[in-house]
Amino acid sequence: MMSDLPKMKIAEARDAMRRGELTSVELTEACLGAIDAADALNAFVHKTPEIALDQARQADERRKASEEAPALNGIPLGVKDLFCTRGVPSQAASKILDGFRPEYESTVTRQLFDNGAVMLGKLNMDEFAMGSSNETSTYGNAVNPWRRRQDDAALTPGGSSGGSAAAVAADLCLGATGTDTGGSIRQPAAFTGITGIKPTYGRCSRWGIVAFASSLDQAGPMARDVRDAAILLQAMCGHDPLDSTSADLPVPDFEAALTGDIRGKTIGIPREYHMDGIPDEIEALWAQGRQMLADAGAKIVDISLPHTKYALPTYYVIAPAEASSNLARYDGVRFGHRAKLAQGDGITEMYEKTRAEGFGNEVKRRVMIGTYVLSAGFYDAYYNRARKVRALIKRDFDEVFAQGVDAILTPATPSAAFGLGEMADADPVQMYLNDVFTVTVNLAGLPGIAVPAGLDGQGLPLGLQLIGRPWEEADLLNTAYALERAAQFVEKPARWW
Fold first, then answer.
1. CA dihedral angle for residue 437, residue 442, residue 447, residue 449, rounded to 10 degrees
2. Are strands 76-80 and 175-180 parallel, antiparallel or unpaired?
3. How far apart are the first and last CA of the chain?
């Protein structure tokens, strides 16, 4: 049935197309139909059916012409609105970029298209990737396809890559791009029962991705399982001379690394992640994850990451500081939204009114925090001190890996998905606490992956996180593959949209 085609995994669709049992056009048309039927999720905010079908036809021709077509040839994907896509709205979910259509393609999307991928459209997200619930978007909230067992309240798909997570979980596309600055791939993946990996900082080019915090941002894939994430990551990685932070390192065959054999591997369990107030269900799932990896032949050891307790405040000094600098370019002069000016207004008034109208409250909050910590008299007290603590956080991980630990197992989130609007009146710090298990990975520049591992008492998905050694995504993916096979998470949201 055509309606079942969007439920296929990337590897399944690739193999079916290689056998001649399926065309990209058929698969793409089925996905476009699923997207049109799922407007209630508000996941896709710029649909590109003409581009998608044209790319699908090209992919089918490419396959006919060569048996060596790439793994992603003809695979329909969604693209987070943070990635600049030539001729297609790329707003970073912000009013201030209203009408912006880039004349260039981000390196990551160009590489995906060179590999034959099909773009179904642009995906919802938190404005400028600032948020943990996809509630700061100029397009409105993205909605999690999952529901609690006892009520129909709309739940967050997580953030900032909430649209990407919702689209993959709801079978609207076979995979999606995300970005992760403090957990924005891994947290929404855990909230929606899918897999998401943030590679080592520098593994994927940041060129053409709208910047939030340049020393923390990293692109990565979101998919239904570890194998699909490996296939996507393969195409997204690689050295890019346009990005000075891009690593000139060979890209391994990530899919070939998926043997599931982790015998002899050492998995660290950080004692500092046993935090006050974590639900018993999260602790129980973490314990089950440890047992699963032990049963697969891994050695489980307790480790210490003593500076973990400083990670959130360090992150929320460094990230806003970099954001305040990066977002200074949005002023209404060259592109995007420009406020209407009154008689006698000058350029200063234009800047002020444009930025006041164009930025949402969360972005304004972070820009003001960032400007404050970078200002004269506070730079040393806040920003410089945060940079020093960041170095200590990285050193904690370096020391653990030097002791022979191959990967670190932690919870992915401190809870399951919460209701949209439930934190609207809360202290913003309560929202920031959603990143408590993920921000250390960005501060240290390490690879991290979220794998769905179970359901909570309300029937919502919960994920576990694995943190790997720098540049060893292949080994990390294989450990995640072993965990995935042991967890056997196959649950899907009940269709209501």
1. 40
2. parallel
3. 19
Residue 150, pLDDT score: 87
Whether omega before 160 lies within 30 degrees of 0, making that bond cis, reads yes
17 Cβ neighbours under 8 A, 6+ residues apart: 23, 24, 27, 63, 73, 74
Q: Which domain range does residue 455 map to?
A: 1-497
In angstroms, the CA 40 to CA 298 distance is 43
184 is catalytic: yes
**Annotated catalytic residue, options 184, 205, 246, 415:** 184
Q: Give the number of domains in the chain.
A: 1
pLDDT digits (tens, 9 = 90+) for 389-447: 999 999 999 999 999 999 999 999 999 999 999 887 777 777 888 889 999 999 999 99
Phi/psi at 407 (5° precision): -155, 160
* Residue 164 and residue 78 in contact, taking contact as beta carbons nearer than 8 Å: yes
Please name the amino acid found at residue 275: M
Identified catalytic residue from 90, 94, 133, 160:
160
- Angle formed at CA 485 by CA 484 and CA 487, multiple of 5 degrees: 65
The helix or strand, by DSSP H or E, that contains position 213, with its residue range, turns out to be none
Q: Which residues contact 196 (CB under 8 A, 6 or more apart)?
A: 161, 165, 178, 180, 185, 186, 188, 189, 220, 221, 222, 223, 229, 449, 450
Question: Residue 464 is part of a domain; what is its CATH number?
Answer: 3.90.1300.10
9: amino acid identity, one letter: K
Element (H, E) at 373: helix 361-374
Marked catalytic residue, from 24, 80, 90, 161: 80
What integer pLDDT is reported at residue 1 of this predicted model? Answer: 62
Cα 91 to the center of its chain, rounded Å: 17
Q: What is the maximum span of the chain, computed from C-alpha positions, in angstroms?
A: 74
For the question of whether the overall pTM of this predicted structure is more than 0.85, the answer is yes
304 an active-site residue? Answer: no
Whether 80 is catalytic is yes
What does the block give as tokens for 87? 């001729």
